Structures are given as structure tokens and as C-alpha cells.
Amino acid sequence: MRGQQERTGPLFSYISTEDRIPTSHPLRQVRRLADQALDRLNPTFCRLYPERGRPSIPPEQLLLALLLQAIYGIRSERMLIEQLDYNLLFRWFVGLNPDDPVWHPTTFTKNRDRLLHEELMAQFLELLLAAPEVRQLLSSEHFSVDGTLLRAWASHSSLERIDGLDDAPPPPSGGKGFGGNVAGKKRAKGDFRGLLLSNQTHRSSTDGEARLFKKAPGVGAFLSFMGHCVMENRNGLVVSSEVTQARGTAERDSALRMVRSLRGAHQKTLGADKGYDTRDFVADLRISGITPHVAQNANRSGGSAIDGRTARHVGYAKSINARKRVEQVFGWIKQAAGLRQLKARGRSKVGAVFRLHVVAYNLIRITNLLTRTAPKELMA
Asked: ∠ CA(312), CA(313), CA(315), 5° rounding?
């Protein structure tokens, strides 16, 4: 018999949200790993909030929601709240019951100063990697490093002279009535015709910490920051990250800071691309007890800083091959997670957002690795 469509649905449901999520759904593993790290952050959260006053939205729920935004590449917090309103999977992930009201989008704005700072996100990443099941996936000896440009939330039209003076008048544009004397004529805001812009003369009025930078010749310079990651070579997990101002030596300076902070007194290797092939950087690595597995730059004046004594080993070739995987981290963060254009201003806020996306990448990567090894463990 043909069934008839009913326009009115039932008023009540006796199936919990937990039962509606498949046991094999990958977000179950992601939530379990994230909850373990967030539970250990509880003392830090207690220090961030006053003891008196109206109870706030739990910070764990807000961070889980931001992880969802990164994992699914949701463009804005308003769209995230819209998803939380009707998506049972998202409600289950952040711990909202079907009848619980969703938050206002400005909730993230009000809590951004409290939750999104670099130290908290660095601690989040450290606690995630400290889990026993995750620790066995990490290499403690072989690492790779690289950096990428992050487009700042500021445009060229926000650039102003540092000294507060007006730029010289624009050159005549030609045509009738435009080729005469331009004395006393002022430039329109954002009109930089005939000017050579540089970080020594101009700053952005919307993000004073962003810097003009281009990574290759023939490419336009944009207001940017630089994101850096150190990846362990066994399974491609990020073990350290930071954001700096965009400048020529930022990648090498950041690499030295992050690698020296890695725990363990045993010998380590560090793979990197040709941009790190400088004598000062290679010498600093050797002084720190780290073997430089940097790609040789044959076009460098004076020759490569990596001699044949290092390049002849099999481990050097393995490090060069494994180093390419760090590009997958930046590719996922920019393409899938939507961080090609930043939505925060200031190096500290940008660093917190970048580290949160690194945590999201690690959660997905760890979930895939654990799922892949689970059948082997059961068979053993």
C-alpha cells in the first residue's frame, strides 16, 4: 500500500542525539581527543574567569565550535551559529541538547580576547600531543620546518605614511584638463601611483603590525604575516607553530626558536627547503646539536652551506623527501579551513587563530592515523 506523506511531524523525540551519531563517524574520535586536552586545560580556564557573576558559556564549548568552523571551512561565525541551530551533528559535537538555544554570533566577539591568545592555543596543542595514544605516533628525532604567508585583514588603501605627512601629488594622468600644474593637489586615499611603497615609509591604519611582503620576484606585495610550523617526520604531525611579522629572515629565526624548544637531549635532524640554505642558519643548527638536512641551493653565491659529508647519508635523502609533507599542512589550513585571508588583526590574535587551525589539522590527522592502526591492534 502506498504511504501517505504527513505534513505535521511529532512533537517529541525519544532518540537521544548521542544515538543519532554513527559510532564510526570520524568526529567521535576528534571530539574524544579534543575533550581530553580541554579537560586538562580546566585550571587555566578557571583563572580566566572571575569567581562571581553570571555563569558564562563554557569555554570548552566555544573552542569546540571554533574547531568545527576550521574543520568544515565555515566562512563566518554567523554561519557557524546558523549550523548549530539545525545541525544535530554540530550540536552533539559542542555538547548542546536539541532543545538548548544557540548563542548569538557576538558571543565569539566578546570572548575572543579571553580565549584566543597564543599561550592558551600553544598549551592546547601541547596537551593534545601529550596524550599516550598520540605520543606513540610522534618522532622525537626527525623534524621538518617551513613557513607560509598569511594575508592580513588589511588592504593597500589602509596604508598611511609613518611620519604623518601627505604623499607627493600624483603625476599628471594625461588628457584635456589633466596635464597642467598639480601643485597643491592632494592624493586620494589609496592612490599610490608613482610611489614606491615600503615598510620603512608606510603602515596600515587598520593593522599596524602587518608588513608588505612578497615571496617571489614578479609577484605583488601584500600586507601579510608569516606562519611557521615544525613537523615531525614519522606521521606528519605539527609539534610547534608560531606567527611572526613578515620579513626576509623570519623563517630562519622562527625555525631556530621552535627547534631549540623541542624536548629531548638526543640528536635531532631538521629538514628544510632551499630558502634555509645559509651559512649562519646551518652553523646555528650545528651549534645547537641539530643536524641540518637542508635542501642544497646550487644557485647560491659561494655555494651551498650543506657539504657532501651531510648530503651523502641516506637519512638526508629521507628528510628531503619527508619535508614536502609540511606543505600539506599549509595547503589544508589555507584551502580547506579557509585561512588564506585572515579574519583577525594584530600578530597575537593572528597567532592564536593560526595555532587553533594547526590543532584542527592535527586532530584530523591523528584521527585518520588511529583509525588506520585500530584493526592491527585488534588483530594483535
From this structure: 140
- Provide the angle, in degrees to the nearest 10, between the axes of the packed helices 77-86 and 59-71: 100
| pLDDT at residue 334, rounded to an integer | 93
Tell me if 181 sits within 8 A of 198, measured CB to CB. Answer: no
| Cell representation of residue 354 | 593560526
The C-alpha cell at 248 is 626576509
Nearest to 209 by CA among 257, 261, 247, 178: 247
Residue 176's contacts (CB-CB under 8 Å, 6 or more residues apart) are: none
The torsion of the CA quartet 215, 218, 219, 224, rounded to 10 degrees, works out to: 40
Q: What angle do CA 365, 369, 373 make, to 5 degrees?
A: 170
Identify the pLDDT of residue 183: 52
290 CA to centre of own chain: 26
How many Cβ atoms from other residues are within 10 Å of residue 318's Cβ? 15
Q: Show the DSSP H helices in the chain as ranges.
A: 17-20, 26-40, 42-48, 59-71, 77-86, 88-94, 106-115, 118-129, 132-135, 250-260, 279-287, 308-311, 314-323, 326-331, 347-379
Q: Cα 31 to the chain's mean position, in Å?
A: 19
| Three-state DSSP class for residue 279 | helix
Phi-psi bin for 346: left (phi > 0), alpha (psi -120 to 50), beta? Answer: left
Length of the chain: 380
Could you list the mean pLDDT of each consecutive 10-residue stretch along the chain, which spans 380 residues? 66 77 93 95 90 87 95 93 93 91 89 87 95 93 94 89 77 52 60 78 92 85 94 95 93 94 82 92 92 88 84 91 93 92 91 96 95 56
Residue type, position 65, single letter: A
Matching residue, cell 594483535: 380
